[in-house]
Design brief:
Helix content of chain A: over 70%
CATH superfamily of chain A: Tetracycline Repressor, domain 2
Structural class of chain A: mainly alpha
Largest sheet of chain A: none
Number of strands of chain A: 0
CATH topology of chain A: Tetracycline Repressor, domain 2
Oligomer: homotetramer
Number of helices of chain A: 12
CATH architecture of chain A: Orthogonal Bundle
Order of helices and strands of chain A: HHHHHHHHHHHH
Shape of chain A: elongated
Number of domains of chain A: 1
Strand content of chain A: under 5%
Chain lengths: ~220, ~220, ~220, ~220
Amino acid sequence: MPKPTFFNLPDDKRARILDLAIEEFAAHGYRAASISRLVAAAGIAKGSFYQYFDDLDDLYHTLLHLGGEQKARYLQATPPPDPAMSPFDYLRWMLRGSVGFEVANPRLARIAYQALMGDGPAEGFVTEMRAALMTFYRAMLARGIEYGHLDPGLDLDAAAFVLTSTLLPLSQYLLSRIDLEPEDLVRPGGPHAAEIEALFDGLLHILEHGMGLHAPEKATHHG
Amino acid sequence: MPKPTFFNLPDDKRARILDLAIEEFAAHGYRAASISRLVAAAGIAKGSFYQYFDDLDDLYHTLLHLGGEQKARYLQATPPPDPAMSPFDYLRWMLRGSVGFEVANPRLARIAYQALMGDGPAEGFVTEMRAALMTFYRAMLARGIEYGHLDPGLDLDAAAFVLTSTLLPLSQYLLSRIDLEPEDLVRPGGPHAAEIEALFDGLLHILEHGMGLHAPEKATHHG
Amino acid sequence: MPKPTFFNLPDDKRARILDLAIEEFAAHGYRAASISRLVAAAGIAKGSFYQYFDDLDDLYHTLLHLGGEQKARYLQATPPPDPAMSPFDYLRWMLRGSVGFEVANPRLARIAYQALMGDGPAEGFVTEMRAALMTFYRAMLARGIEYGHLDPGLDLDAAAFVLTSTLLPLSQYLLSRIDLEPEDLVRPGGPHAAEIEALFDGLLHILEHGMGLHAPEKATHHG
Amino acid sequence: MPKPTFFNLPDDKRARILDLAIEEFAAHGYRAASISRLVAAAGIAKGSFYQYFDDLDDLYHTLLHLGGEQKARYLQATPPPDPAMSPFDYLRWMLRGSVGFEVANPRLARIAYQALMGDGPAEGFVTEMRAALMTFYRAMLARGIEYGHLDPGLDLDAAAFVLTSTLLPLSQYLLSRIDLEPEDLVRPGGPHAAEIEALFDGLLHILEHGMGLHAPEKATHHG
DNA sequence: TATGAATGAGCTTTCATTCAT
DNA sequence: CATGAATGAAAGCTCATTCAT
């Protein structure tokens, strides 16, 4: 938790520090991030850092929380589909939102991704978030079964694992595959919008047929 | 690339150094691994390290190559099924082999996993290996389509991505979920063999139905 | 010397600051005492400290003076015996008083003791106080000779040195030897009152016979 | 305990480092001694210090042990008097030796003195040494009683306390009183030899008469 | 080849002190 | 008078790397 001093800072200064901190962690990872480098980049005194934060860990957790809040706000900008409908519609909504946010905030996304992949301190926050993700997907799938959209014989553990493993690295994959500026990547009518939607289609098709109740006629999905 | 000096070492000494290096990287990660700690643990002189390797990066890549070779040897111990048969039989073979190897070499597996997840130096090797994995899966899937086992409309990129993302973290997931000693985990008749096979079944079912040509009668997979 | 600001403070606030300052110096010693820690404990602003004192040294000397005054007041509460009588009666009075005060104010006593033992700044104050102590004892001893209570051949320097060296650490010794709460230690009828009086007897006996004119019959002091 | 590296150093370099370390601790005390200052003075790299010692504490204890050994060697150069004789003869021997050593090694003596006075880390070594001193004096006094040199009614605790308290700071007192170069102070025929012996006489007289069995005729000690 | 002492840059952290509000 | 943000010097300590033996 940052010290009150940090929140009393002028908005632009606080924002600049956070931005450079994101830069630092994204560039060097949790373990090799350096307070010295950060304060040099930010043009503030070494001692000032400790007026704002307890230590690097404090700043790190601040960044992760910040990322979580920002992503939540971003997702809420587009209302989610009716949960009684197919969970794949829901997934598509979430997928568009997540990728949109992460492509718009690639460095912050990279930090969160690495945190969930085992970089960063092993304790608390991260472990909880991984578990929360799995739990969330399990619940979503269970609801899907209840509403008759999913195969009742589905192995929930396996399915939640597939979802987590697949969706987490998705935007990193996109960013690496399409070597473009992030902002160009997801602009609604941008040059890659079609390509991305195609990938979403392919992905969701696999998941849907892998997990869903597929009537024979639905098999001709991509005529 | 290690220097010739390293290969002239007595076998046991060379093995001990590699083993402790694995320990060091697995325990502290690529960025926080320390030559000082390693030579102290190995009981060799600081200078000797530089007789064997250029630097930590050199050793790191050596370890990754070593892991690759060992895994290849391990997999080849069990002959793969006929590639003309269902790619899911092939996948199951590979899955059993991979998980078996990684659970038998948890620290080495952890290093490789973290390397592929973005720890380690961003350059060369790692990126290549990720690409190689994707390419390998793409080829496997293409062959599956060719032989009529897979839906010809399958989005190869999406499918290869799902496979890569799902199979890479699988053994880490298993190790975390089943809180047991690694060696107990995969012993053929061990206490968790059934549980693991069930997870494999669930996983392959999803992938198979998501990607395959599913005859209607196969839908009752787990009666 | 504290600044006037300090004396204009509400009594309770001023007292609290002094009390916490005593705590700080007693706990960490002169050299490791920290303004930062003190103001944090006292809940005052960093800058406020400098409104009250020049620096840590200023506060330190204030504490020492304060201790001196308090001790003087404490001693005067019990009227000293007639100086024309044996200086050992006088010593016993002083001893009781000193030990009583120091045991009642252990942290303040500890600071003063360490100051006189060479902790603290080498300059001025401390040296003076040590010299003053010696001078005081010399005068007392000289008066004892004058009044015929002491051996006229007594080496005044040696004797004053013995007194100073012996009495200064006395209460520290008592506190360390008897592992009890300070307040229990000197309560008139307390469990250790007898033990302490016995030590006083032993001590004064040695000093008296070492320095005094001892009539043969007084040799049977502790039948 | 210093690391082996330190003992492999050339003699003169090792000696210079120890000497400057003594200087550092004597000048600034245990708590304010600084590795940075020391290495600057010694002209060695910061890192080199840590090749020799674990940390400041390690060096500090090394110095104390070194002082103890040197003093023991110094004392053994003059054979002690027969312990069956008066303990005051023994005391005089010890006193001459101690003062001689401490005046010849004033800074080392100051460090040890401050250590025994409560500077330095509270743990182990120091507490033990204080207790050892008291025990040693108690034993000496008990032997004195046994051999009939001391008053059998003597309070051993009180007496041992007087001895410890008096003799410990003696050379510090001498050094402060006689403002001379240490080496001039104890040279056998030096300008202050007589003065010092006189102080010894005075001191021992007090102790002897305070603790001893004084036959009436011995009372005329300084005729 | 093996050694391990030497090095200095770099790290995190604490500190007393100043000063604008 | 009170405040607390800003500062940079200085601390202890670790590190990879070099090099003479």
